[in-house]
Amino acid sequence: MKVNRLIEPLVLALALSVGAVGCKTNPYGVTKLPNGDANKPGNTGNTGDLEPGTGGKTDGTAGTDLNSTNVSGLAAGPGHPGWPQDREPLAPYTVHFDYDSTVIKPKEKTKVQAVADYMKANSANAVLVEGHCDERGTDEYNRSLGERRAGAIREALAQMGVDPNRVDTISFGRDKPVDTGHSEAAHAKNRRGEFVVLMPPK
């Protein structure tokens, strides 16, 4: 009898622990929100990425370790409402990102530099940086990710000598894909930051 009384609580505790573990699984295709374990290997969340301006990584890529030019506290825009827009001049310099990342890769940094050079040569103009994502993840998460991508580009421009008050940002999340396919190639095209020239009203 005493043995049975000891076994019953153990069996109950084991059943509860198995049930709790089973509840922790995530549905396929749902992107995890960033958390304190984001930098652990194997985490499918926002791995290795930080809010623009918070620093942290020291690999020299834009969007990370930007304490020397922290512009994240400034109003990100739109700071130039009503200014005429022109998408053509900076269309070739669209920046593409890795999956779930806000880090500007070295090969993409040359595009940001070209935009910085344009901004220095056209000092009356401003620029709008649009953040975009692929179709995976929730609307809310992708709007946040697009905002952080645009913010990372804005900080990179500031590091290159562009007044951040001339750089507005906006996130479209996954709402404006350039490729409506569902392949990895389509996703890669849609993970991007685009530049729109803003000209002073005449």
Describe the structure in your own words.
The chain has 202 residues and is of the alpha+beta class. It has a single domain, classed as 2-Layer Sandwich (60s Ribosomal Protein L30, Chain: A). It has 4 helices and 5 strands. It has helices at residues 2-22, 106-121, 139-159, 184-190, and strands at 85-86, 95-96, 126-132, 167-173, 192-198. Strands 1, 2, 3, 4 and 5 form a 5-stranded mixed β-sheet that branches. Strand 3, helix 3 (139-159) and strand 4 (167-173) form a beta-alpha-beta unit. The chain is elongated, with a radius of gyration of 22 Å. The termini are far apart. Mean pLDDT is 75; it is low at 18-77.
Q: SS-based structural class?
A: alpha+beta
Radius of gyration computed on alpha carbons? 22 Å
Q: Total helix count?
A: 4
Stretches where pLDDT is under 50 for at least 5 consecutive residues are 18-77
Tell me the β content.
Answer: 5-15%
The CATH architecture can be given as 2-Layer Sandwich
Please tell me what the overall shape is.
elongated
Total number of β-strand segments? Answer: 5
Q: Give the name of the CATH superfamily.
A: OmpA-like domain
Main β-sheet, in a few words?
5 strands, mixed
Mean pLDDT: 75
The run of helices and strands is: HEEHEHEHE
Kindly report the CATH topology.
60s Ribosomal Protein L30, Chain: A
Helix content: 25-40%
Terminal Cα span: 93 Å
The CATH class, by name, is: Alpha Beta
Q: How many domain units?
A: 1
